[in-house]
Structures are given as C-alpha cells and as structure tokens.
Specification:
The complex is a heterodimer of chains A (about 240) and B (about 300). Chain A is an alpha/beta fold and about 240 residues long. Chain A has eleven helices and eight strands. In chain A, the strands form two sheets. Chain A has a six-stranded mixed beta sheet with strand order 4-5-6-1-7-8, sandwiched between helices. Chain A has a two-stranded antiparallel ribbon with strand order 2-3. In chain A, helix 3 crosses helix 4, helix 4 crosses helix 5 and helix 10 packs across helix 11. The mean pLDDT of chain A is about 90. In chain B, about 35% of the residues lie in helices and about 25% in strands. Chain B has 13 helices and eleven strands. Chain B is of the alpha/beta class and about 300 residues long. Among the domains of chain B are: about 130 residues, P-loop containing nucleotide triphosphate hydrolases (Rossmann fold), CATH 3.40.50.300; about 40 residues, no CATH class. Classes of the chains: A alpha/beta (about 240), B alpha/beta (about 300). At the A-B interface, helix 1, strand 2, helix 6, helix 7 and helix 10 of A face helix 8, helix 12, helix 13 and strand 11 of B.
Chain lengths: ~240, ~300
Amino acid sequence: MVAIVGTNGAGKSTFSKVICGMEKENAGEILFCGKNFADLSIKERAEHVGYVMQNPNQMISQVMIFDEVAMGLRLRGVPEDEVKERVEKTLKICGLYKMRNWPVSALSYGQKKRVTICSILVLEPEMIILDEPTAGQDYRNYTRIMEFLKGLNERGITIVMITHDMHLMLEYADRSIVFSEGEIIADKSCAEVLTDKETVDKASLKETSLYHLALNCGTEDGTAFVQNFIDYERGNVRKDV
Amino acid sequence: MSDYIIEFKNFGFKYRAQAEPTLYNIDLKIKKGEKILIAGPSGCGKSTIASLINGLIPFSYKGEMTGSLLINGKESRDMSIFDISHIVGTVLQDSDAQFVGMTVAEDLAFALENDCIHQDRMKERVNEVAKILDLGDLKNHAPSELSGGQKQRVSVGGVMVSDVDLFLFDEPLANLDPKTGKQAIELIDELQKRTGAAVIIIEHRIEDVLHRPVDRVILLNEGRIVSDTTPDELLSSQNLEMCGVREPLYLSALKYAGVPIEPSIRPASLNDLVLSNEDKDKVNYFYSHVKKNKDTRENEEMLTVKNLSFT
C-alpha cells in the first residue's frame, strides 16, 4: 500500500489522472508491469488500474446497488449470468451482499464509498488508486474502510491512496510519495517522511507527535521510534480490531 | 445579564423526519469567553448542537424541542435568527457554501450591509478585519482564486465584522491539509484572545485541536453528554476509546510503553507533558523491544513512471 501526499495543487490528482489516461502526458513514459501504457485507451487502462474518486456521489449513476456495481461489466458486454456471478462475489467481499437490492440513496456516505470501490473491484484491476479514501469519516468508519482496503491488499491488489491524513499514512502505507509543486520530492517510508522537517514543510504536512515524544524521551533515533511504533501497532493492536 | 453565553437545561431534540430523538437530557453551560471543544463520533449529535446554537434549528430544520436553551440569557425559541446572528457567528465546514460575495471584500462586508452600516465605516471595518486575518492583498480576489485555508479565513472574517460574542466552528479541519489545519487552530486561538469572545469548536480530531489549549472538552455519544471536563481529565479516562474517538498518537505510544496516563502528567499537550525519568526509560524500553515486522516481501515493480510531465 502506497500513499501519495502533498498540498492541494501539488499534482497528486493530476498524476493519477495521467496514469489512468484521463489526461495525456506531454513527455515521459508510463510502464505497467513492463508494458507501455501509452498505447492503451482509458477503458483498457481501467482494466488494470481502477480509480476511485473522493466523492462517491460524483461516481454513482445507477439507482440500485446491484446495477451500479454491474455497470462496468455490462458496458463491456459481459453475459448477464456472468455479470450476476461476479457482482455477487464482489458484493460479498465488500460486505454489501445483503444490501444488493437496496437503492443507493439508502446508504450512508461510507457505505456509498464502499459501493464505488466495489464497482471498480468487480473489473478485477491489479491496482486501485483512491483519492482521499477516508475524507469526512469518523475513526470508526475510517478503520472499517482502511481494514477493508488492507484486506484487498492482502488478496494481492496494489492500493495507492491520495491522502492528507497523516495517521492513515503511518498506519497503513508501506511507502509514501511526496508531491510538491508538480514534482516528486520524496519517495521513502512514512516514518522517514513524517520525521523529516524539510519535506514536511515543503509538502504542508505535519510532523507526527510520536517523533516529538521520542525526542522528549531522549530516544536516539526518532525516525526508528516512529517506525517501531507502527510495527507494534500493526503486529499487536490492529489485529484485534 | 447572565454569565453564560449558552445554557442548555434538560434539553432534548427530535428531527421531524426521524423516529428517535437526536439529543437527550442535555445540560451544558458555556461561560462568556470560554473555549470549548465538542467531540464525538459521526451521528453523536454534535452537529445538531451546533445547529441549535446558531439557529439553523428551528429556522431551517424542523423538529421537536424539549427543555430549555438560553442564548445570552434569552430563551432561544423566542429569538429570531437575525437576533441570534448578532450573538453567534458560525464558520461552516464547507467554506464554499458560506461565500456570498463576488470578492473577498464584498463577502466581508455582507453582514455590515445587512445592518445598514454607513459605507465609510463599512470600508474601515472590512480593512481592519482583512488586516487581522492577513487577507489584505486578497480583497479583490474571487472565491475561486483562493485556497481552502484562505476561504476559511474569509468565512471567519465574515462573522468577525459583526463583533459576535460566540464563534462556532463546525469541523474546521475537515477540508484543510495538515499544515493549514494547524494554522487554523492557531488562528482560532488568537481570535479568542483578541476578541474575548467564547469559542466552540466541533471536531473529532482531538490531537489536532489540542495543538492550542481549550478550557473544556464535551464528549458526546449517541445523543448524550458522556463527559464534560478538562482535556487532561478526559485523556486520562477510558471515555474516548469507549466512544470510538481517536486519542492523540503520543498517548497511544505511552500506553504501549506502560506509562499510566493521569491528569498529573498533563497529557493534553505534548509540550506540557511531564514525564519522569522512569517513564522515559519505559518509552525507550518499548522502543528497543518492538518485534520487527518480518513482512518485507520483495515486491515486483508494477507501475513505473519515467520522466513524466504534464501541463
């Protein structure tokens, strides 16, 4: 799981759009599993890389949950019995199976988010890019969404998250890519990024309080302290959630 | 005159469209000039409390009220939304929704125009406020030319012009990046000191709000007040965890290290935190004894981007 971070307007979303083919690059190369992406259309790229927008209301176009998730497959001319099978399977993974015959309007914001992820997942992409997957969610819903994404990651899907949330980065991302004014200024572990004053300032991030605690306690290596905290949480605490 | 700017007495509220009440038996007093954080998970009723204080309930959202709510000593249901707007200034979560003018200066002047303030005085006041909020160079900018943090400062200015006694911030951090969020919390703090007005911040990100001190934290869950106490007391209790609200990360680290969290160590701020040498040793012991995650599987490269540019 990778986090893309940086200020508004730093180029995070634009970068994702270029990857997905919604914008065309001026120069340079995009390779996906060694193959040149430039030759593929938006639709073809979408079969490899799924894109989930920040606001689910901007993505959802169908009235019923089942139809929303089925839309991508139906547009691709997949036979209806296969559509049914794949949609139901994916709805189960997303914990939405019981609600399959509900109208989308009956769902909470977080559940709608899950529907949009589900409708991308059904196309079986190898990678999903999510723009602010937990914006506007409280801690409980945040944990639900993130644990769900972690589960997908464990099934072998690469997860790329565009985020402002320092906690999310620390807890879930293995690596963070920092954008500033259209350039990548860092590509390191989250513990390294969030304890590096220069990067933090340039990208309008915030140093984590863990780092200051470590300094306060005279720990020799603050960055390693943050990393160990993350390892401890992942190994001991998160498992019980 | 009352010492309290806000007084809920055995207050309950049920939205017209809902079967169950959203708030039950709320007793809450907020003194003039006090700085309060109202926290709680989604759906706990914190936004409803905000709407009651700024008059959106009952003027925009209908429902059934029981008990009493006094705003500056007067029963709120006997007041008009116009009366309330002179006492309570709200800064909405979505600053786009709060922008009424075509430019920053027009937006700041909106309330003054409604109050028929003389134009010279209006210009003077707009300039004063713009200066305080560092918006001087942006006065002729349209909302679309502003960043999220700047828009929020304009919203703050828009309520500041009318000398309100209470500033209400509804999730001020929700749409800001971490650094701008930090500045917003600093701005709110300065605002309170400068104006002497009471401040209510509604947020679930406790660690970020406590970047500057608050007098009390009201924790809500399922429509009821769970606790009403100082940040130090709250952080030393189990209540946050019970309500599914995240505690500051440095406190999680201290707990893992086996350092007991008590009001005496002043947990509300990392700067004030009092740790004994023994506590520090515990933290360092924790640090050096964490089992390394073995999950450093070698991943194959999936997406590669080389020298990409786009304008």
